[in-house]
Design a protein that fits this description.
single chain, alpha+beta, Monooxygenase, Jelly Rolls, 2 domains, 6-stranded antiparallel β-sheet, elongated, F-box_only, F-box-assoc_dom
Length: 280
């Protein structure tokens, strides 16, 4: 296949699973190694899989590809498409939680066209939570204990323009025994009556939180301030916990994927497989 034009060979290689590209194909010959370590192949794979890049430069595309595969939203059913499925510890104050279609009465459209529904609270406190098992999502102990990658949390809330409401967010990083190792708790946000009903994003990034994190507990909720029967409280949607996305060492990565340690023996590890120190 060395006689094939490089552009054709890149298209053929792009059809091969990424793990095999790095741990098998790049060992075939110098030409394949250069293509696998180059940007063009990974730009094509990103395009094929719909992975977009916020940065304008084209540096470290192989790294970007692998990290993007880990950057999924760990919150399940963030917009109410499955009613209250996956949400636990549900507190149904007043008339309880309800799911409505955007924009809703006296509401505004969400900034993203991909979001179609939201959860809405009632005249007494409504809360709901999800506990994310990081190991079940593919983030094993050594990664969490040594690299301590950043964990990014986001939520969106809004009120009705004809009613005031309250909103709170609390996110905790938990140990194996569910001890609290780190916590972010917002202030109680008060949205006045006659507000503009616009959607507001709240976010927090956990970093350098120490070893032992195994779970993320995400809880949010609110109520209206007028105590009107029905659903006049805060609206929430598009909640997200973006999973750990730092780079792990080659040996740990191979062990996690049940690959032989000697696969890269005698070869220079590609950029995404080299060890990076934790950011502080």
């Amino acid at each position: 296949m060395e006689s094939l034009p490089e552009a054709v060979l890149i298209r053929i290689l792009a059809s091969i699973p990424a793990v095999e590209l790095v741990l098998v194909c790049r060992l075939v010959c110098c030409q394949w190694k250069n293509l696998v370590d180059g940007a063009a192949l990974w730009i094509l794979k990103c395009q094929q899989e719909g992975l977009t890049r916020a940065e304008s430069d084209a540096e470290n595309w192989q790294n970007f590809y692998f990290l993007s595969k880990k950057r999924k939203n760990l919150i399940k059913n963030p917009c109410g498409e499955e009613d209250l499925e996956h949400w636990g510890e549900v507190e149904n104050g007043g008339d309880g939680w309800k799911i409505e279609e955007l924009p809703g009465d006296f509401g505004k459209e969400f900034p993203s066209e991909e979001v179609h529904k939201y959860f809405v609270t009632s005249y007494e406190w409504c809360r709901k939570a999800q506990v994310i098992d990081l190991r079940a999502e593919g983030y094993w102990e050594e990664l969490m204990d040594t690299t301590q990658p950043k964990i990014m949390v986001r939520d969106w809330y809004a009120g009705r323009s004809d009613a005031g409401c309250l909103y709170e967010l609390c996110v905790r990083l938990l140990s194996e025994n569910e001890d609290v190792l780190a916590e972010y708790k917002s202030e109680t946000v008060t949205i006045p009556q006659d507000n503009d009903a616009s959607w507001t994003e709240i976010s927090h990034t956990f970093s350098s939180y120490g070893p032992g994190v195994r779970f993320v507990r995400f809880e949010h909720g609110g109520q209206d301030t007028l105590f009107w029967k029905g659903w006049y409280g805060v609206r929430v949607t598009n909640s997200s916990v973006t999973g750990p996305h730092q780079i792990q060492g080659t040996q740990q990565w191979q062990m996690h994927h049940h690959l032989p340690k000697a696969t890269l023996a005698g070869k220079q590890a590609p950029p995404w497989a080299q060890h990076h120190e934790t950011e502080h």
